[in-house]
Amino acid sequence: MKIHGINGLTLLDFPGKMACTIFTGHCNFRCPFCHNATLVLNPDSQPLIPEDSVFELLEKRAGRLEGVAITGGEPTLNKDLPEFCAKIKEKGLLIKLDTNGYNPGMVKELIDKKLVDCIAMDIKAAPENYAAATGLASFNMDPIFESTDLITDSGAKGLIDYEFRTTVVGGIHTENDFAKIGKWLKGAKAYFLQGYREGNDQIDAHGLSIVPVDTMEHYKEILLPFIPNTQLRGVV
């Protein structure tokens, strides 16, 4: 595993759990609003943290930590992610995976092998707006649809907990996105609209803006008939 960052203690990244967060490098998307641009574009410029150091930390905090959140970058690009998760599970800890959903094969393997307890999948936009939201010239939605189906089905069977979430960005999203996302993810367990914030390590902030709270509330109202558990997060 190429680990480039670790937050030793958090109550935010794994809701309801005392956890540590592990940051991996590299991503197959180039979302202009991404706040981890260095991890996406130039991860090798960041220190590489040995796996042994991670497990030493987990040992030191045994009895305090309940879980580990694995984020990025995009963690599923690491072929040895299942082996890494298995080592964490041996410690009796829960695992939450943050993913963009573009590697459904890896997501399925983790679920089938019971190596992940919670998945948070980013929904970048309505399907026809995915290319713009991911910063790519074109986009194949099939892997995304496969992942959302897999996650919702696994959640319904009680195999995992999960949430979908979208960082709402002025200059990218309109109410049309959320009308279509609502129909697409109808019946999902939980969907969060996250407030975009300007940062110093973004891929491309040109033309982007913070969405007002009243507009966020309007988008939430559009979604509620389809996903009753739609909430705002990180909105001030």
Account of the protein in words:
There is one protein chain. The radius of gyration is 17 Å and the shape is globular. It starts with a strand and ends with a strand. It has 236 residues and is an alpha/beta fold. Helix 4 (104-112) packs parallel to helix 6 (142-156) and helix 7 runs parallel beside helix 8. The chain has a single domain (3-233), classed as Aldolase class I (TIM Barrel), CATH 3.20.20. The protein has helices at 37-41, 51-60, 81-90, 104-112, 130-134, 142-156, 175-184, 213-223, and strands spanning 3-10, 19-24, 67-71, 94-99, 118-122, 161-168, 191-195, 230-233. It contains eight helices and eight strands; from the N terminus they run ββααβαβαβααβαβαβ. Strands 1-2-3-4-5-6-7-8 form an eight-stranded mixed β-sheet, covered by helices on one side.
**CATH class group:** Alpha Beta
Estimate nothing, just give the exact number of structural domains: 1
CATH topology, which one?
TIM Barrel
Secondary-structure-derived class: alpha/beta
Radius of gyration: 17 Å
**Approximately how much beta-strand content do the residues carry?**
15-25%
Major sheet summary line: 8 strands, mixed
Overall shape: it is: globular
> What is the helix/strand order?
EEHHEHEHEHHEHEHE
Mean pLDDT: 94
Q: Tell me roughly what share of residues is in helical segments.
A: 25-40%
The CA-CA distance between the termini, in Å, is 36 Å
Poorly predicted ranges (pLDDT <50, ≥5 residues)? none
Question: What topology, given as strand order, has the largest sheet?
Answer: 1-2-3-4-5-6-7-8
**For the record, what is the CATH homologous superfamily label?**
Aldolase class I
CATH architecture: Alpha-Beta Barrel
Give the tally of β-strands.
Answer: 8
